[in-house]
Design a protein that fits this description.
Blueprint (H helix, E strand, L loop, with lengths): L19 H10 L1 H10 L11 E6 L7 H15 L3 H7 L4 H17 L4 E5 L13 H22 L5 E5 L8 H18 L11 E5 L5 H18 L8 E5 L17 H4 L4 E6 L1 H7 L12 H14 L5 E3 L11 H20 L5 E3 L5 H28 L9 H17 L4 H8 L3 H8 L1 H8 L1
Parallel strand pairs: 1-2, 1-8, 2-3, 3-4, 4-5, 5-6, 6-7
Helix pairs in contact: 3-5, 4-5, 5-13, 6-7, 12-13, 13-14, 14-16, 16-17
């Protein structure tokens, strides 16, 4: 390794201490660390992350559900005075209202739901609803796959769609696996294109995870499904729902959630916080169960630390205070929902759950306001960084990556336009992706 060109003659430089043998020894000592960082901490992929997940009981899913919810959301907002009035209600200043309201209205009319989960777990098949629950769930797992295929063919499918099946606890494990295999097998077959007919945005959700072993069992299950259905190895990933305290602190005092990324062979795509199951397991009274309870914040901070740098994404939970009832009740629920969405975004949770169509207006109002409010300064700093112009803030590469990631998320969800950002920064969406995720860009280039 030659000395850098310092402008000094070689004889004027201090004598080198490190030789090839030293470098080789240090390289050998750190080979394990190099592998760990490269394999276990690749960073975020830079692909689109939905801003929310909508859960609907499996028997209520139809191919037009996303459009139907969008119309219901617009109608509810209209009854309350329109999107602009809701934006004012939740505290947006006039200039931000003018930027956000038309974008939210357009979003609700074109892509009201970004991520849809057909639910075979909580809220599905209440006791006594079916004389033969297993036969009913079998039929509805097949029907769900058919309806997803119809939605894809009709162009009404959400960008991300999948199922939440029953958890891997003893009493529901086999039922969950049966639903999972029926749905996937039918979806592969009904699409007509074989394994390639699975939607790119397919998402599978494993709920109520308590131990690392349950996740390892899920890895085995998807491997068997891939082999049986002729899918490419690694095609099936899954989300983990963090709904039990045992995953945050295990019986040995360690944090099992921190082991998931390193024991799941790259299969986990996201961790989702389950507000109400987790709160109930801590015996928090129903009136105080919330996404902003201190117990919730502790669990989510552990989750955030556990997956930092791994590429596994995070989702906050939901609020069950719905914008229904009289006008005063709806207004209070909308204000609460918008505040909680904003709170999650500020804490680095870029996704959450929505449980009702009337929550969609404030989901997008709060999300779009978050990005548009930060857009002027973020784009100015990015432009200065790329053009090497000294501004009021001198940003380092790590900060520039964060700025680019922020702007990129805003573009991906529709809060800002790619052309708008290019005019402000000179950067295309592809440029933003490479700047936000340089390590992955380098890997893809190779």
């Amino acid at each position: 390794m030659g000395a850098p060109d310092s402008g000094f003659p070689a004889e004027a430089l201090p004598k080198a201490v490190f030789g090839d043998a030293d470098f080789e020894r240090i390289d050998s000592q750190l080979a394990g660390t190099d592998r760990l960082l490269a394999e276990a901490y690749p960073g975020d992929a830079g692909t689109r992350q939905p801003v929310h997940t909508v859960y609907v009981p499996a028997d209520r899913f139809t191919p037009s559900l996303a459009a139907d919810w969008g119309q219901q959301a617009l109608a509810a907002a209209g009854e309350a005075g329109g999107i602009q009035r809701l934006a004012e209600l939740v505290g947006l200043p006039a200039e931000l209202v003018a930027e956000v309201a038309p974008r939210v209205e357009a979003k609700l009319g074109t892509e009201a739901i970004e991520d849809l989960r057909i639910d075979f777990e909580d809220g599905y098949l209440a006791p006594g609803r079916s004389a033969d629950p297993d036969a009913t769930e079998d039929a509805e797992a097949v029907r769900a796959a058919d309806q997803v295929a119809v939605a894809i063919a009709a162009g009404t499918a959400t960008p991300f769609v999948g199922i939440r099946f029953k958890c891997f606890e003893d009493g529901t494990r086999r039922r969950g696996l049966r639903t999972l295999e029926l749905f996937l097998a039918r979806l592969v077959g009904v699409g007509g294109g074989g394994p390639d007919s699975l939607p790119e945005g397919l998402v599978l959700t494993l709920p109520k995870v308590s131990t690392v072993e349950q996740v390892e069992a899920m890895v085995y299950a998807v491997e068997r499904l891939e082999s049986s259905l002729g899918l490419h190895p690694g095609r099936l990933g899954f989300e983990v729902q963090v709904e039990t305290p045992q995953l945050i602190i295990g019986p040995d005092g360690n944090h099992p959630v921190a082991q998931l990324a390193h024991r799941a062979q790259g299969r986990i795509t996201a961790l989702h916080y389950g507000t109400y199951d987790y709160s109930a397991s801590l015996q928090i009274a129903a009136a105080y169960q919330s996404m902003e309870h201190p117990a919730a914040d502790f669990a989510k901070e552990v989750m955030q630390l556990a997956v930092a740098g791994t590429g596994i994404r995070l989702s906050d939970g939901s609020t069950n205070v719905l914008p229904v009832g009289d006008a005063a009740q709806r207004d209070e629920a909308w204000k609460l929902h918008a505040r909680l969405v904003r709170r999650s975004l500020e804490r680095g949770y870029y996704q959450g759950w929505d449980l009702h169509a009337h929550q969609l207006p404030t989901r997008y109002i709060a999300t779009y306001a978050f990005y548009r409010e930060g857009l002027p300064k973020a784009t100015e700093r990015l432009r200065n960084y790329v053009q090497q112009t000294v501004g009021a803030v001198l940003d380092e590469p790590a900060t520039a990556r964060a700025l680019a990631a922020f702007v990129l998320r805003g573009v991906q969800c529709g809060a800002a336009g790619a052309d708008e950002v290019r005019a402000l920064t000179g950067l295309s969406e592809g440029d933003l992706t490479r700047l936000a995720h340089p390590r992955l860009a380098a890997l893809n280039a190779n």
